């Protein structure tokens, strides 16, 4: 199975919003007004696309809060979550 693309959802001080960026290319994929908007009901899954990916979600202070895999069926079996 090929490796999943990796993304990060983090707070942008300049725009005061939340940005989803591709970790490999460092390109911003989407911006959201709040973390709640970004993490609600499949929004991140649509943003990473049909091929899916792994999204690291950060807190406002830059520490990692959680990691989500889309679709869930591609989550590695050895992971805790």
Secondary-structure topology with pairs:
Elements: E1 6-12, E2 17-22, E3 28-32, H1 35-39, H2 43-48, E4 53-58, E5 64-70
Could you tell me how far the N terminus lies from the C terminus, measured between alpha carbons in angstroms?
19 Å
The structural domain count equals 1
Q: Gyration radius, to the nearest Å?
A: 12 Å
**Quick one: how many beta strands?**
5
Structural class: mainly beta
| Separate helix tally | 2
**How would a crystallographer describe the biggest sheet?**
5 strands, mixed
Low-confidence stretches: none
Strand order, sheet with most strands: 3-2-1-4-5
Mean pLDDT: 87
Run of helices and strands: EEEHHEE
Q: Which word captures the global form?
A: globular
Q: Classify the helix fraction into a percent range.
A: 10-25%
Q: Which percent band covers the strand fraction?
A: 35-45%
């Amino acid at each position: 199975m090929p490796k999943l693309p990796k993304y990060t959802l983090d707070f942008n001080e300049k725009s005061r919003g939340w940005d989803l960026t591709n970790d490999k290319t460092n390109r911003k994929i989407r911006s959201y007004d709040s973390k709640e908007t970004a993490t609600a009901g499949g929004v991140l899954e649509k943003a990473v696309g049909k091929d899916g990916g792994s999204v690291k979600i950060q807190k406002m202070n830059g520490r990692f809060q959680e990691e989500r895999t889309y679709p869930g069926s591609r989550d590695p079996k050895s992971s805790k979550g």
